[in-house]
Amino acid sequence: MLKRLFKEELGQGVVEYGLIIALIVMVVIGAFVAVNGGLNGIFNNTGSNLSSPSFILNG
C-alpha cells in the first residue's frame, strides 16, 4: 500500500499548477503594492483637477 502511495503521481500535476498560480498571484499583488503610491497621486491629481479646473471654457 505504501509503495502504491509513493508511485501514484496523479495529483502531482494539480499541485504544481496550484503552486504556479499562487506564485503568479503573489507577483501581481506585489506589483499592485509597489505602484500603489503612484496611482494614489495620479487619482488625487485627477480628482482635484476635475472638481476645480484651472481654466474656464468660453462658449
Could you describe the 3D structure shown?
With 59 residues, the protein is mainly α. Helices cover 76% and strands 0% of the residues. It contains three helices and no strands. The protein has helices spanning 2-7, 12-34, 36-51. It is rod-shaped, with a radius of gyration of 25 Å.
List key phrases describing it.
59 residues, mainly alpha, 76% helix, 0% strand, rod-shaped, Pilus assembly protein Flp/PilA, transmembrane
Ordered list of secondary-structure elements with their pairings:
Layout (H helix, E strand, L loop, with lengths): L1 H6 L4 H23 L1 H16 L8
Name the helix and strand elements from N-terminus to C-terminus, one letter apiece. HHH
Distance between the termini: 85 Å
Instruction: Provide the gyration radius in Å.
Output: 25 Å
Instruction: Report the uncertain regions.
Output: none
Mean pLDDT: 76
Q: Level of helix content?
A: over 70%
Estimated share of beta-strand residues: under 5%
Protein name: Pilus assembly protein Flp/PilA
Organism: Hydrogenispora ethanolica
Transmembrane segments: 20-43
Keywords: Membrane, Transmembrane, Transmembrane helix
Q: Can you describe this structure in just a few lines?
A:
The protein has 59 residues and is mainly α. 76% of the residues lie in helices and 0% in strands.
